[in-house]
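Obj: model holo form, ligand = magnesium ion.
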Amino acid sequence: MGTKGIEIVDMDVKQLIGLLNRAFADEWLAYYQYWIGAKVVKGPMKEAVIAELTQHAADELRHADMLALRIIQLGGTPVTRPEQWYSQSNCGYDAPDSPFVKDVLDQNIKGEQCAITTYKNLVSLTMSRDPVTYSIVLQILQDEVEHEEDLQAELEDLETLLTAAAK
Ligand code: FE
Ligand code: FE
Ligand code: MG
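Output (holo C-alpha coordinates):
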Protein backbone atom coordinates (compact mmCIF):
# COMPACT_ATOMS: atom_id res chain seq x y z
CA MET A 1 0.00 0.00 0.00
CA GLY A 2 1.14 3.56 -0.75
CA THR A 3 1.23 5.46 2.52
CA LYS A 4 1.05 9.00 1.06
CA GLY A 5 -1.62 7.88 -1.40
CA ILE A 6 -3.75 6.73 1.51
CA GLU A 7 -2.92 9.76 3.66
CA ILE A 8 -4.53 12.12 1.12
CA VAL A 9 -7.86 10.29 1.42
CA ASP A 10 -9.94 12.65 3.52
CA MET A 11 -12.43 10.07 4.78
CA ASP A 12 -12.71 6.83 6.73
CA VAL A 13 -10.64 4.49 4.54
CA LYS A 14 -12.01 1.29 6.13
CA GLN A 15 -15.57 2.42 5.49
CA LEU A 16 -14.65 3.37 1.93
CA ILE A 17 -13.08 -0.07 1.32
CA GLY A 18 -16.29 -1.66 2.62
CA LEU A 19 -18.41 0.34 0.16
CA LEU A 20 -16.04 -0.43 -2.72
CA ASN A 21 -16.22 -4.13 -1.85
CA ARG A 22 -20.02 -4.00 -2.01
CA ALA A 23 -19.80 -2.46 -5.47
CA PHE A 24 -17.18 -5.07 -6.39
CA ALA A 25 -19.59 -7.86 -5.38
CA ASP A 26 -22.32 -6.19 -7.49
CA GLU A 27 -20.03 -6.15 -10.53
CA TRP A 28 -19.34 -9.90 -10.37
CA LEU A 29 -23.05 -10.68 -10.09
CA ALA A 30 -23.84 -8.22 -12.90
CA TYR A 31 -21.10 -9.78 -15.02
CA TYR A 32 -22.56 -13.25 -14.59
CA GLN A 33 -26.15 -12.10 -15.07
CA TYR A 34 -25.18 -10.59 -18.44
CA TRP A 35 -22.91 -13.46 -19.41
CA ILE A 36 -25.50 -16.19 -18.76
CA GLY A 37 -28.30 -13.99 -20.13
CA ALA A 38 -26.43 -13.74 -23.44
CA LYS A 39 -26.26 -17.54 -23.58
CA VAL A 40 -29.90 -18.35 -22.79
CA VAL A 41 -31.82 -15.41 -24.31
CA LYS A 42 -34.52 -16.25 -26.88
CA GLY A 43 -36.91 -14.37 -29.11
CA PRO A 44 -37.01 -11.59 -31.69
CA MET A 45 -33.93 -9.35 -32.03
CA LYS A 46 -31.96 -12.03 -30.25
CA GLU A 47 -28.74 -11.34 -32.15
CA ALA A 48 -28.69 -7.62 -31.33
CA VAL A 49 -29.51 -8.31 -27.69
CA ILE A 50 -26.79 -10.97 -27.40
CA ALA A 51 -24.23 -8.50 -28.77
CA GLU A 52 -25.25 -5.86 -26.22
CA LEU A 53 -25.35 -8.28 -23.26
CA THR A 54 -21.94 -9.68 -24.17
CA GLN A 55 -20.43 -6.20 -24.38
CA HIS A 56 -21.97 -5.24 -21.04
CA ALA A 57 -20.65 -8.42 -19.41
CA ALA A 58 -17.14 -7.40 -20.47
CA ASP A 59 -17.70 -3.89 -19.07
CA GLU A 60 -18.87 -5.24 -15.70
CA LEU A 61 -15.81 -7.47 -15.45
CA ARG A 62 -13.63 -4.45 -16.25
CA HIS A 63 -15.43 -2.52 -13.47
CA ALA A 64 -14.67 -5.37 -11.04
CA ASP A 65 -11.02 -5.06 -12.06
CA MET A 66 -10.95 -1.28 -11.52
CA LEU A 67 -12.53 -1.65 -8.06
CA ALA A 68 -10.23 -4.51 -7.01
CA LEU A 69 -7.15 -2.47 -7.90
CA ARG A 70 -8.42 0.55 -5.97
CA ILE A 71 -9.34 -1.57 -2.92
CA ILE A 72 -5.80 -2.98 -2.91
CA GLN A 73 -4.29 0.51 -3.31
CA LEU A 74 -6.24 1.58 -0.24
CA GLY A 75 -4.78 -1.31 1.76
CA GLY A 76 -7.89 -3.49 1.60
CA THR A 77 -8.64 -6.95 0.23
CA PRO A 78 -11.23 -7.46 -2.49
CA VAL A 79 -13.90 -10.05 -1.59
CA THR A 80 -12.19 -13.42 -2.00
CA ARG A 81 -15.19 -15.76 -1.82
CA PRO A 82 -18.03 -15.94 -4.34
CA GLU A 83 -20.60 -16.58 -1.57
CA GLN A 84 -19.74 -13.09 -0.32
CA TRP A 85 -20.87 -11.64 -3.65
CA TYR A 86 -24.41 -12.34 -2.41
CA SER A 87 -24.00 -11.22 1.17
CA GLN A 88 -22.18 -7.99 0.22
CA SER A 89 -24.13 -7.06 -2.89
CA ASN A 90 -26.27 -3.90 -3.09
CA CYS A 91 -28.11 -4.93 -6.23
CA GLY A 92 -28.30 -8.72 -5.97
CA TYR A 93 -28.75 -11.16 -8.81
CA ASP A 94 -31.72 -11.86 -11.07
CA ALA A 95 -31.50 -15.30 -12.68
CA PRO A 96 -32.76 -15.25 -16.28
CA ASP A 97 -35.14 -18.16 -15.65
CA SER A 98 -37.45 -16.72 -18.27
CA PRO A 99 -35.18 -16.42 -21.33
CA PHE A 100 -37.60 -14.28 -23.38
CA VAL A 101 -35.74 -11.18 -24.65
CA LYS A 102 -38.10 -8.74 -22.98
CA ASP A 103 -37.76 -10.41 -19.58
CA VAL A 104 -33.96 -10.50 -19.80
CA LEU A 105 -33.86 -6.83 -20.86
CA ASP A 106 -36.22 -5.85 -18.01
CA GLN A 107 -34.06 -7.65 -15.44
CA ASN A 108 -30.88 -6.04 -16.65
CA ILE A 109 -32.45 -2.57 -16.85
CA LYS A 110 -33.45 -2.97 -13.20
CA GLY A 111 -29.86 -3.99 -12.38
CA GLU A 112 -28.43 -0.97 -14.18
CA GLN A 113 -30.79 1.36 -12.34
CA CYS A 114 -29.57 -0.06 -9.05
CA ALA A 115 -25.96 0.30 -10.21
CA ILE A 116 -26.59 3.95 -11.16
CA THR A 117 -27.89 4.63 -7.63
CA THR A 118 -24.88 2.86 -6.09
CA TYR A 119 -22.32 4.82 -8.13
CA LYS A 120 -24.15 8.12 -7.78
CA ASN A 121 -23.85 7.67 -4.01
CA LEU A 122 -20.14 6.78 -4.29
CA VAL A 123 -19.52 9.78 -6.55
CA SER A 124 -21.21 12.12 -4.06
CA LEU A 125 -19.36 10.57 -1.12
CA THR A 126 -15.87 10.78 -2.65
CA MET A 127 -16.24 13.96 -4.71
CA SER A 128 -14.17 16.31 -2.57
CA ARG A 129 -12.57 13.70 -0.29
CA ASP A 130 -10.82 11.16 -2.49
CA PRO A 131 -10.12 12.32 -6.05
CA VAL A 132 -8.65 8.97 -7.15
CA THR A 133 -11.65 6.89 -6.10
CA TYR A 134 -13.92 9.67 -7.36
CA SER A 135 -12.41 9.41 -10.84
CA ILE A 136 -12.91 5.62 -10.87
CA VAL A 137 -16.52 5.63 -9.65
CA LEU A 138 -17.34 8.49 -12.03
CA GLN A 139 -16.04 6.47 -15.01
CA ILE A 140 -18.10 3.49 -13.89
CA LEU A 141 -21.20 5.66 -13.40
CA GLN A 142 -20.81 6.93 -16.99
CA ASP A 143 -20.73 3.33 -18.23
CA GLU A 144 -23.78 2.31 -16.19
CA VAL A 145 -25.77 5.28 -17.51
CA GLU A 146 -24.80 4.20 -21.04
CA HIS A 147 -25.77 0.59 -20.26
CA GLU A 148 -29.23 1.59 -19.06
CA GLU A 149 -29.82 3.68 -22.19
CA ASP A 150 -28.56 0.90 -24.51
CA LEU A 151 -30.95 -1.61 -22.95
CA GLN A 152 -33.92 0.75 -22.91
CA ALA A 153 -33.28 1.53 -26.61
CA GLU A 154 -33.26 -2.22 -27.38
CA LEU A 155 -36.47 -2.65 -25.40
CA GLU A 156 -38.10 0.19 -27.33
CA ASP A 157 -37.13 -1.42 -30.66
CA LEU A 158 -38.42 -4.76 -29.45
CA GLU A 159 -41.74 -3.29 -28.35
CA THR A 160 -42.16 -1.58 -31.74
CA LEU A 161 -41.48 -4.89 -33.43
CA LEU A 162 -43.92 -6.80 -31.21
CA THR A 163 -46.65 -4.19 -31.70
CA ALA A 164 -46.16 -4.30 -35.49
CA ALA A 165 -46.25 -8.10 -35.46
CA ALA A 166 -49.49 -8.11 -33.44
CA LYS A 167 -51.30 -6.00 -36.09
FE1 FE B 1 -20.64 -2.15 -13.73
FE1 FE C 1 -23.69 -1.93 -16.21
MG1 MG D 1 -23.62 -1.10 -24.68
